[in-house]
Amino acid sequence: MDAVLDGGFTAPVLQSQSCFRAIMDALANPGTPQSLSQPAASHGPLTGELASVLLTLADQDTPIWLDEALRNDAGVAPFIGFHTGAPIVREPGRAVFAFASAASELPDFDQFNLGTQEYPDRSTTIVLAVPSLSGGPQLTIAGPGIKGHSHINPLGLNEDFLTQWAANRQLYPRGIDLLLVADGQVMGLPRSTRISEGH
Q1: Among 10, 90, 23, 98, which Cα is nearest to 58's?
Q2: Positive or negative: CA dihedral 45, 23, 154, 98
Q3: What pLDDT, in 10s, does the model give residues 106-159?
Q4: 3-state SS assignment for residue 28
């Protein structure tokens, strides 16, 4: 039981406000990593960054989806239940937020809630832990919040990421938003962002 009680924010109000600001800044400035100051402790496969975003965004009114590694860990569901009360759903399409410990654990983006033309904001936001926000193949990004274009090189994305992202972007204003987390930071890739290979 102690493990369930521990691992949350030590100063919940300050830490959740700080984390929320980082997430909003990450989505407003796509591709620019934002620091998650004082992230929560990791909890098995639930990294400190995933835990921080989960504690900040999830509550009893936000159904969340967990990948198999997170779902099968004996400590994760009780931790989430105690700290947030968020219902855990097995169907990706019912999730407001989805948390994945690795890109290989994610179903295709179109399996999640893509929103509707009337309510595009009801789509799923995916929070994906990657090994690092740098060191991977270079990608070019452009779109709202980006001056001209910029480059990112997160490590650990799936080989078909660009194909899936192009299909997701074509749905705009519908489509999922993506938060990548690693190294005590969060990087936002909102659905409006164009992502292509190389320079």
Answers
A1: 98
A2: positive
A3: 999 999 999 999 999 999 999 999 999 999 999 999 999 999 999 999 999 999
A4: helix
SS3 150: strand
Asked whether the beta carbons of 120 and 174 are under 8 A apart, the reply is yes
Q: Answer for the pair 123, 97: CB distance below 8 angstroms, yes or no.
A: no
User: Could you tell me the domains of the chain?
Assistant: 2-197 (3.40.50.11310)
**Cβ-contact 70, 46 below 8 angstroms:** yes
| Backbone φ, ψ for residue 45 (5° rounding) | -70, -10
- CA 76-110-149 angle, to 5 degrees, is 95
Give Cα 144 distance to the centre of its chain.
Answer: 19
Strands in 48-142 per DSSP E: 64-66, 88-89, 97-100, 125-129, 139-142
Tokens (6 digits) for 53: 């975003």
End-to-end CA distance of the chain: 50
